[in-house]
Specification:
The complex is a heterodimer. By secondary structure, chain A is mainly alpha-helical. Chain A is built from 14 helices and no strands. Chain A has one domain (2-260). Chain A has helices at 2-7, 9-24, 32-52, 56-60, 63-88, 90-93, 95-98, 107-115, 117-133, 145-169, 173-187, 199-206, 211-221, 228-253. Classes of the chains: A mainly alpha, B alpha/beta. The A-B interface holds A 10-11, 14-15, 18, 21-22, 25-26, 96-103, 169-172, 255-256, 258-259 and B 15-16, 21-24, 27, 70, 73-77, 89, 91, 93-94, 97-98, 100, 102-103, 107, 110-111, 114-116, 119-120.
Chain lengths: 261, 396
């Protein structure tokens, strides 16, 4: 299976590029949509939570600092939101091609994870600009965004491998993923720092799958949290569980998925 | 044998059909079992195809043709048995699989070529010839959604054959293109076959298979019912079609009879006593009907009709004005219609009926189940009838 995937790496790159082109081809603003939306989202959240809810300043000292704090989390979070659902339904959604020609069924999952990397990279650049211009500047620690982004991609691939295989059998997965992500926005330390809740709740929130990459992004821009290590470890654990089950399913079911599509 | 490119041994494929959708909630209930039934799409198929051979696969819808293709392309695994296919397989199945309407022709060539296993450098090298073959030079940088369906097929075909696969699987696609393009495709397929590519053509269109394959297999209800020369395969295919059509007609209850029962209806080539279902245009053919009378029939009359697959009545006739001699109850009358089949290529139905004549009018007593047969026409003649024309250059 790994060998087949490796042999298909050329296809992977071409398909990922195609996916990305197709997504923005007919839009006037093109890729601006991919990075503009989180930017607007961060600004609006910063204003609302500073002036309406009133936690912004307490978290990051200033509204501007809070904006950077938010954007640092939104860059990885939006990658998960973009790539996660598509990766989870990738096998079923590629039925037209899959019914005609053989390629490892895990390939569309990887393609989705890859094609969403382009906006992620642009998001990183904007994050750097934002941290320098409105935040407190950056240091060598900013390089942490790279392992952070890598962890994001890994998480999507692992979860995608597992869920896309299950989705062939249980079409409910599509809706479950959407539901989990919309609830997950509040159960993940995006609008609040992990240091704010106390005791068990803090640990529970830290072991959420998305907390790991977000905490790395925070460490890269506004400083690490005390539960940083736990969050990263937990995320690695999730990857291992989902990735393990996913890989096993993909190996065993590779050639029979198509019968159920 | 070592030069077999495709080898199937005892291959079966069954699909599980869930009567109710497998819900997550049912899966969680430990003892709940969703009702399922199994559907046998292919049963115990043995097949060997050598390098450079081109083999046709004939069968009606649901005979297992598509499943066979999916097994050959490796898309799905057999339920039992062994499928061995050596080398790179390129499917030419449905128009431009993997073409994205928003991408330009050029981009789609690269995407599709890569999916078919060509490295980018190779696509670069062959790009010119692909575009030239597809005749889309002026539109190569236009999104393919603006392409005509013909351009779409041409580009899809051009990419698939450019991949120089070891095995080319051809589905109904070619039926889509216009005639000139079909000829061009056949020429190209002949070229790559000469280079050693094995070609499997799957179709319910006999013309496509006849034009290209010397050997064909006939599928019916998931089984291989014939494997041999295409000419005989076409006869076998029409035999299968005829039986299945007969079942349909019986089910429709169209064959009410009173006064006589048709025992058999068959087509024969000239004086050959054995029935056949595949003729060449211009053959002298006998349509023979055996009828058992259940009452005395004073003036038995035969009627017959040949209908093209399109539904057009090609020829219809009766001997109403000169009836056969009387037929007594329980007697069997064998009646023949002798005719010359001057028809273009295609599938046809022949049916016959027995009537009782009463001074210029008649009452139908019995009707035979239609016989389906195939005619291989002369050259490129097409239309309703072959009037036997020939081309000459005359002095000005």
């Amino acid at each position: 299976m790994l060998r087949e995937l490796w042999a298909a790496r050329g296809v992977l790159v071409i398909l990922a590029r195609k996916d990305f082109y197709v997504k923005y081809r007919r839009t006037a603003l093109g890729v601006v949509w991919a990075v503009g939306v989180p930017l607007v989202q961060a600004t609006v959240l910063a204003i609302v939570f500073t002036h309406v809810v009133g936690i912004g300043r307490g978290v990051a000292g200033s509204q501007r600092g809070y904006a950077v704090f938010l954007y640092a989390a939104l860059v990885p979070w939006n990658y998960l939101v973009n790539a996660g659902p598509t990766a989870s339904t990738a096998i079923v959604d590629n039925v037209a091609l899959a019914g005609k020609i053989y390629f490892p069924r895990a390939l569309p999952v990887l393609v989705t994870a890859m094609s969403a990397v382009y906006p992620l990279v642009i998001g990183l650049v904007l994050l750097l600009g934002m941290a320098v211009l409105v935040g407190n500047g950056v240091g060598v620690a900013f390089l942490l965004v790279f392992p952070g982004a890598a962890l994001c991609v890994l998480l999507v691939i692992c979860v995608g491998l597992c869920l896309s295989a299950l989705h062939v059998y249980f079409r409910d997965i599509r809706y479950i993923v959407t539901a989990v992500l919309s609830v997950g926005f509040y159960l993940t330390p995006i609008i609040y720092p992990l240091s704010r809740p106390h005791g068990t709740l803090r640990h529970l929130l830290a072991i959420g799958p998305a907390a790991g990459p977000i905490e790395i992004f925070r460490a890269a821009t506004v400083g690490a949290d005390s539960s940083y290590g736990l969050a990263v470890l937990a995320c690695a654990g999730w990857c291992l569980v989902f990735g393990g089950i996913g890989f096993w399913l993909q190996c065993r079911r590779d050639r029979v998925f198509v019968d159920l599509l | 044998m070592s030069n077999q490119v495709i080898s199937l041994r005892g291959v079966s494929k069954s699909y599980v059909k869930y009567e109710d959708a497998p819900m997550l909630i049912n899966a969680l209930r430990l003892r709940a079992r969703s009702r399922r039934s199994s559907l046998l799409a292919l049963a115990d198929i043995d097949l060997d195809i050598a390098a450079g051979e081109s083999v046709g696969v004939l069968g009606r819808n649901g005979a297992g043709k598509s499943t066979l293709l999916q097994l050959l392309s490796g898309v799905t695994a057999p339920s039992s048995g062994v499928v061995k296919v050596r080398g790179k397989v390129a499917p030419l199945i449905s128009v431009g699989v993997g073409f994205h309407p928003e991408l330009t022709g050029r981009e789609n060539v690269y995407v599709n070529g890569t999916i078919l296993g060509m490295p980018t450098a190779e696509i670069d090298r062959r790009f010119e010839s692909i575009v030239e073959f597809a005749e889309v030079e002026d539109f190569i940088d236009t999104p393919v959604k603006f392409y005509s369906s013909g351009m779409f097929v041409r580009l899809g075909f051009a990419v698939a054959v450019a991949a120089e696969p070891d095995v080319l699987l051809v589905d109904e696609v070619l039926a889509v293109g216009d005639f000139a393009f079909q000829l061009k495709c056949f020429a190209r397929m002949q070229e790559i076959r000469a280079q050693g590519t094995t070609i499997v053509v799957v179709s319910h269109n006999v013309n496509v298979v006849r034009g290209f394959c010397s050997r064909s297999i006939v599928m019916s209800h998931g089984q291989k019912v014939f494997d041999g020369p295409t000419f005989d395969a076409i006869s076998a295919f029409y035999n299968v079609v005829g039986k299945e059509v007969a079942e349909d007609v019986y089910l429709a209850g169209e064959l009410v009879s009173h006064g006589a029962v048709v025992e058999s209806l068959s087509l024969h080539s000239g004086a050959d006593p054995a029935a056949t279902l595949h003729f060449d245009s211009g053959d002298d053919v006998v349509l023979r009907m055996a009828v058992r009378a259940t009452t005395d029939i004073d003036h038995p009359v035969m009627g017959m009709t040949i209908t093209a697959e399109s539904g057009t009545v090609v020829y219809s006739d009766t001997n109403l004005m000169s009836p056969f001699p009387p037929l007594a109850a329980d007697e069997v009358g064998v009646y023949e219609m002798r005719l010359t089949l001057r028809l273009p290529s295609g599938g046809y139905f022949a049916t016959a009926s027995l009537h009782s004549a009463h001074g210029g009018t008649s009452v139908q007593l019995a009707r035979a189940v239609p016989v389906t047969f195939y005619v291989s026409g002369r050259g490129l003649a097409s239309g309703v009838a072959d009037l036997g024309g020939s081309f000459h250059r005359a002095a000005p």
